[in-house]
Amino acid sequence: MTVLQGAALFVAAILGSTLNAVAGGGSFITFPTLVFAGVPAVRANATSTVALWPGGLASVGAYRDTFTTERRDLIILGLTSAVGGVVGAILLLHTSSPTFLKLVPFLLLGATLLFAFGGRLTANWLKASEPTAKRSQRSMLAVVALQFVIAVYGGFFGGGIGILMLATLSFMGMTNIHAMNGLKALLATCINGVAVVTFVVASAVDRPAAIIMIVGGIVGGYGGAAAARRVDQAVVRRIVIVVGLGMAIYFFTTQYLTI
């Protein structure tokens, strides 16, 4: 690894963790940078996950006073995320990703649209005549099922899970973007944490690159979360939507328009 490559990985980790703290999608910066530095694709994906995980943990610390979700729901979603993350990580280590990557642009586009309009749809749904307890139980079951699918995808590839989780959390009736970002950061840390253990045990990580990026990731993770909380909620929502649409366009282009 050259000095220039090391510097590029460090900066990419800062930018990736900052983007994860604000809206998600940081691996779209770190993963390509690792590949550019000569790391094989599967190993680059595993290394990217390891590199960004400490930054995600730092983001959780910065958001620690925004958690408003009940402890029971936090435990359920945390365990769901951990189980799904292990399943996804094992799939990455034993299968190729081309077929799944073909679905990524559709998932990202759908999730971005859900995040953009999910609040209004949820508000209308909550006005239904069903008892509140029944509505709450049904919505929670849907969120758990969606979170498991997102966690599997997160352990397998991970790009855009922040956007997907923000869209899913809107169906819990959450509207405060900072509280949603805090819970998103916590669940992403659970997903990536178990994936990190899986990748390290399987020796699927480029250690020199990971060490450099972990340092940058911590800086970007805490600093990005602190900065995001000082930004107007409407501005952060616009950033999330722009990032989601941008990632969807990127994957549509690379997966379906490559000559």
Quickly describe the structure.
This protein is 81% helix and 0% strand. The protein contains ten helices and no strands.
Please estimate the helix content: over 70%
Question: What string, H for helix and E for strand, traces the elements in order?
Answer: HHHHHHHHHH
Main sheet record: none
**What is the 3D shape?**
globular
Distance between the termini: 31 Å
Number of helices in the DSSP assignment:
10
Please state the CA-atom Rg, rounded to the nearest Å.
18 Å
Number of DSSP E strands: 0
- Quaternary organization: single chain
Structural class: mainly alpha
* Overall pLDDT level: 79
Note the beta-strand portion: under 5%
Number of domains: 1
Detail the poorly predicted runs.
Answer: 129-135
Structure, explained:
The chain is mostly helical and 259 residues long. The chain has one domain. Helix content is 81%, strand content 0%. It is built from ten helices and no strands. The protein has helices at residues 3-22, 27-36, 41-62, 71-94, 98-126, 132-156, 161-169, 177-201, 207-228, 233-256. α1 packs across α3. The longest helix is centred in the middle third of the chain and has 29 residues, at 98-126. The chain is globular, with a radius of gyration of 18 Å. 47% of the residues are buried. Residues 129-135 have low confidence and may be disordered.
Keywords:
single chain, 259 residues, mainly alpha, 10 helices, globular
Chart the SSEs and their pairings.
Blueprint: H1 3-22, H2 27-36, H3 41-62, H4 71-94, H5 98-126, H6 132-156, H7 161-169, H8 177-201, H9 207-228, H10 233-256
Helix pairs in contact: 1-2, 1-3, 1-9, 2-3, 3-8, 3-9, 4-6, 4-8, 5-7, 5-10, 6-7, 6-8, 7-8
